[in-house]
Amino acid sequence: MTEFIHIKSISQLHQLMEIEKPVHPLISVVRHSKDMKISFGNVRLNSDLYFISLKENIKGSFKYGRNSYDFEEGTLLFVAPGQVMSSNNEEIEPDLGGWSIFFHPNLIEKSTLSETILKYHFFNYDIHEALHLSEKEKATLAECVLKIEQEINQNIDKHSQELIIHNIEAILKYGLRYYDRQFATRTNQSKDYISQFETFLKNYFNQNQQLESGIPTVEICGKAMNMSGKYLSDLLKAETGKSLIEHIHLYIVDKAKATLLNSNLSVSEIAHSLGFDYPQHFSKLFKTKTGLSPSEYRNLN
């Protein structure tokens, strides 16, 4: 039976990794070394912490979500509290050039970052959607990590927490910039994904899956594309300027327009055929996108 470990604190994580006790109770910067333990056998890990890890020259694999991840040089990984990770019985060799930042949500609970951190969707990306950094990008992040490390290790004063959070936020903002770069440099692959997504959306409605499962959600779309819904949405946004939800809504409105003009179905029947449980929700969406109610659109044409 697979063992399950729930990591509740920075101190517990340090014990698990068999490294020295943390200096700060809510945040830790760990420089990867050959002495740290990162292979735990056949276990599943669930954590209350945020992880930001740079993986360098590491051998082995780690499972996260639905995928097995082979570590690559210069890979930056973001993990949010509540994510489930697992490792197998194979030994994983620690990388000597990498680093990890672990912090508890309590660190940022009284700061604006406690709310804005939700906009950093990459905390919910699947492991195979990690960020691949250039040498210059790694050097920029290394400066932020060093500043956090210095604040943790010097005498704590009233400015320490604010400066630590400031540099965490800088890393996250750079993460957004670097992901935009990654989306842009993989534009041909992104266009393939967009085409596949459009095909999925057409098939979903043509096969009337909305009648059984409802309007496709971000999660349903991501699973169909073998990626996280957040990553797919950000990819679409970067390439087309519209999020996944916007694409779904526009597709629904286009289908509704055609049905309104080419059938005698009532607005309620059309709403149901498109996967809406309540006709008023359909009417509200239609008017938001067109400026007209479904009945007004039908009579106008």
Question: Would you write up a description of this structure?
Answer:
- This protein is of the alpha+beta class.
- The chain has 2 domains: 128 residues, Sandwich (Jelly Rolls), CATH 2.60.120; 112 residues, Arc Repressor Mutant, subunit A (Orthogonal Bundle), CATH 1.10.10.
- The chain is built from 12 helices and 10 strands.
- The strands form 2 sheets. The chain has a 5-stranded mixed sheet with strand order 1-3-8-5-6, covered by helices on one side. A 5-stranded antiparallel sheet has the order 2-9-4-7-10.
- The longest helix has 26 residues.
- The chain is elongated.
- The termini are far apart.
- About 5% of the residues have low confidence.
What descriptive keywords fit this protein?
Arc Repressor Mutant, subunit A; alpha+beta; 10 strands; elongated; Jelly Rolls; 301 residues; 2 domains
Largest sheet, strands/sense/barrel? 5 strands, mixed
The structural class is alpha+beta
Quote the average pLDDT.
Answer: 85
CATH class of the largest domain: Mainly Beta
List low-pLDDT spans: 59-72
Specify the CATH architecture of the largest domain: Sandwich
Give the termini separation.
Answer: 64 Å
According to CATH, the fold-level topology of the largest domain is: Jelly Rolls
Furnish the topology, listing elements before pairings.
Layout: E1 3-7, H1 10-17, E2 27-31, E3 43-47, E4 50-55, E5 61-64, E6 67-70, E7 75-79, E8 84-87, E9 99-103, H2 113-116, E10 131-132, H3 135-153, H4 160-185, H5 187-206, H6 209-213, H7 218-224, H8 229-240, H9 244-262, H10 267-273, H11 279-290, H12 294-300
Parallel strand pairs: 1-3
Antiparallel strand pairs: 2-9, 3-8, 4-7, 4-9, 5-6, 5-8, 7-10
